[in-house]
Amino acid sequence: MAKQVKLKAEPRPTVGRSAVRKLRARGLIPAVIYGGNDKPQPLQVSARDINAMMSQASGENVLVELEIGGDGPSRTALVQEVQHSPIRGEIRHVDFHAISMDQMIQAEVPLESVGTAVGVKTFGGLLEQSLRALAIECLPVDLPDRITVDVSQLNIGDSIHVRDIQLPAGVTPKVQLDLTAFSVVAPVVEEERVATEAEAAAAGPEVITEKKEEGEAAAAAAPIFDCPRVDETAIRLIAGLGNPGPEYAATRHNIGFIVVDQLAAQFGSAWEKSAKWDALSAKCGAVLLVKPLSFMNRSGYPVFAVAQFYKIEPQQILVALDDLALPLGRLRLRARGGSGGHNGLDSVIAQFGTEEIPRLRIGVGAAPREGSADYVLSRFFDEEKPIVRSTIDRAVEALKCAIDNGLISAMNTFNKSEEI
Fold first, then answer.
1. pLDDT range class, residue 215, cuts 50, 70, 90
2. Per-residue pLDDT, 418
3. Higher pLDDT, 40 or 416
């Protein structure tokens, strides 16, 4: 079970870039505790203490007894999010979520396999892990560090679903029970066909786009946006990332939500809440739009659950998200890559176990050197709003281009530097 640790904290009297800079110079880390019936409270904790606590944590979920100011009762909290410097990796900010020891909480717990599957050991099969974390509900005292699953009896073609996992006492899953967690598949050997010289000569040079004949173009469905068509893997799911709740609705961190909201509105699609996963979904023609409701740093699980239910591959997903590294108004489409320090994308990559996930990064402007956590949760300045509106419009067109004409075409069209 998750170990509860004690941590001393002090109320943070001042906020802002200058105050945070001075705070870190004194060896302190800015933090905030929210949840429960109290308003969010800015805190400061010792960098030495928080680093020691996180280095000794055996799992991703850390229960903390916060002793604030040395006076009054302590507060029990769950570490909700830890922000690290993308360059040096040190902790820059910590979010604590206040909880009550007698009330149920929800968390994502890592799944780990134990044993060697008989199908792997005897028949050379491959063990595939489809679910890397399990969303659960339990009392804080019952919160596990991780959940281990014995896969030793799996043969080729066998699977372990959520309903088959033996959970600790007091822990219940908050996902579909028929989701696949582990499976053993037969190895596949593909023979690469070598083209003959005659075939290579006939093929000619590779081209990205091809102009359709007038009759063929008329027969084809009219594209949503006028960018060249490239035959490739079709986009079937678009996930906009953000935080739920009106307090986050117009913040920089929520521009992924804002863009997919506008895309849904253009199609006259209504958002629906499903009992199957913690997300809102809407239809954009044959493409599914998704807004996770699990908060940014836990975005991966709802997106993964939807994709597994509809049998959507990672390469068929396009994630829309904010990017501090891009100037305000700049768009960048990529077919793959790391998270770049974005907690929402990092969660998606972790759940799918691959970086081969297309993404649309939307520039929200560089954060001040100190205080990026406060910056991404801030609203756009009045002088920025005309650029923001134009950026949202172009981001929607980029998504529509990717739907109709493929990711490469959208990259060729929208990755160009534009006057903004």
1. very low
2. 53
3. 40
Helix segments in 37-176, DSSP class H = 47-56, 118-121
**How many domains does one find in the chain?**
3
Cα(18)–Cα(379) distance, rounded to whole angstroms?
A: 19
Query: Residue 419: its pLDDT value, please?
Result: 42
CATH number of the domain encompassing residue 39: 2.40.240.10
Residue type, 205: P
Are residues 349 and 369 both part of a single domain? yes
C-beta separation of 134 from 163 below 8 A:
no
> Which amino acid, one-letter code, is at 18?
S
Read off the pLDDT band of 315 (50, 70, 90): very high
Domain of 394: which CATH number? 3.40.50.1470
Q: What is the pLDDT of residue 107?
A: 82
Identified catalytic residue from 84, 93, 97, 253: 253
Give yes or no: 253 in active site.
yes
Of the candidates 399, 310, 297, the residue with the CA atom closest to the CA atom of residue 351: 297
Res. 85: pLDDT tops 80: no
CB atoms inside a 10 Å sphere around CB 272: 10
Most confident of 101-105, 107-111, 176-180, 206-210: 101-105
Domain contains 15: yes
Tens of pLDDT along 363-375?
988 776 555 667 7
Segment 374-378 long-range contacts (CB within 8 Å, at least 24 positions apart)? 374/15, 374/16, 374/20, 375/252, 375/324, 376/251, 376/252, 376/253, 376/322, 376/324, 377/248, 377/251, 377/252, 377/253, 378/251, 378/252
Answer yes or no: is pLDDT of 221 > 50: no
Residue 140 belongs to domain with CATH number: 2.170.120.20
Do 307 and 404 belong together in one domain? yes
139 and 90 in one domain?
no
The torsion angle over the Cα atoms of residues 313, 316, 322 and 323, rounded to 10 degrees, is 90
DSSP 182-218: EEEE----PPPPPPPHHHHHHH-S--S--PPPHHHHH
